[in-house]
Amino acid sequence: MDPILKTDNLTIRFGGHTAVSGVNFEMPARQLKSIIGPNGAGKTTFFNLLSGELKPSAGEVYFKGQPITGMSAVARTRLGLGRSFQITNVFPNLTVLENVRLAVQSKEKIRYQMFRHFVRYQYLMDEAEKLIEMVLLQGREYAIASQLSHGEKRKLEIAMLLALDTEVLLLDEPTAGMSLEEVPAILDVIRKIKQTGEKTILLIEHKMDMILDLSDSIMVLFNGKLLADASPKEIMDNEMVQNAYLGGLYDENAVES
Ligand SMILES: Nc1ncnc2c1ncn2[C@@H]1O[C@H](COP(=O)(O)OP(=O)(O)OP(=O)(O)O)[C@@H](O)[C@H]1O
């Protein structure tokens, strides 16, 4: 099957520094691929190039075979490439339910008047409730967003991303800054989304056990270059990756090409 997302020689330079360098990557539809690599390897920059927040110095991004390199982030979201924070923002003074409902509404582009269009309003609420359940926030519908724990906030962001109903989800370190107790819940949320079989998920993560648990494939970025892209087992057995990790991939002094 043709990849849903593909890059060809994707490159971006910031002054003299090449943050992403000639990356050729293919994302099969309805799979989960993790991106790993040391700090500064170019993972977030690669995401920004996929989502349209950055324009490459060279190379192309394709979505379902169509070049989208010149498209804005919003246009890419409409097409089916979603990243949290792109269109919707969490309103801190609103409840979980109101935030998710507004995100559903922004996708539906519905302008409604609450009482005259009760059926529509009910539809938005039902959709929001479904998403809240999907991210395991049921029971917290009426909590004010600003009062959520860090882990709950990340769940809310995922629900709002899901509300956009994009085929591809770009998740940038969903467990960042979380306490150890909060991590399994996010793992459950991502597993649940994956199990629907409807989404293609690209995940940047540092937590190796989580990556191995969830991923169909793993790609390794190192100094902006694609070092490997293969099954979790192949990645773990890959000598180059092993050397890179064990031999100081995370040692800043070793990160020179
Ligand atoms: N807007 C920018 N201007 C200049 N340099 C940048 C810019 N964005 C990223 N860089 C540089 O590009 C390199 C890659 O950064 P990036 O944030 O993509 O790495 P990363 O793999 O996501 O790291 P981390 O795991 O720490 O998030 C870094 O050296 C960074 O300093």
Task: Explain the overall architecture.
The protein has a domain at 1-73 and 169-175 and 200-257: Rossmann fold (3-Layer(aba) Sandwich), CATH 3.40.50.300. Helix content is 38%, strand content 23%. It is built from nine helices and ten strands. The protein has helices at residues 43-51, 73-79, 96-108, 118-134, 150-163, 183-195, 208-214, 232-237, 239-249; strands spanning 5-14, 17-27, 32-36, 58-63, 66-67, 81-83, 168-172, 200-204, 217-222, 225-230. The strands form two sheets. A six-stranded mixed beta sheet has the order 6-7-8-3-9-10, with helices on both faces. A four-stranded antiparallel beta sheet has the order 2-1-4-5, with helices on one face. β4 (58-63) and β5 (66-67) form a beta hairpin. It is globular. The structure holds adenosine-5'-triphosphate (ATP). Adenosine-5'-triphosphate is lined by residues 14, 17, 19, 37, 39-45. Residues 5-248 form the ABC transporter domain. InterPro entries: AAA+_ATPase, ABC_AA/LPS_Transport, ABC_transporter-like_ATP-bd, ABC_transporter-like_CS, P-loop_NTPase. Keywords: ATP-binding, Nucleotide-binding, Transport. It holds the Pfam family ABC_tran.
In brief:
With 257 residues, this protein is α/β, with parallel strands linked by helices. The protein contains 9 helices and 10 strands.
Main sheet characteristics: 6 strands, mixed
- Share of helix among residues? 25-40%
If helices are DSSP runs of H or I spanning 4 or more residues, what is the number of helices?
9
Query: Rg to the nearest angstrom?
Result: 19 Å
Q: What number is the mean pLDDT?
A: 87
**Fraction of residues in β-strands:** 15-25%
Q: Quickly give the structural class.
A: alpha/beta
Count of DSSP strands? 10
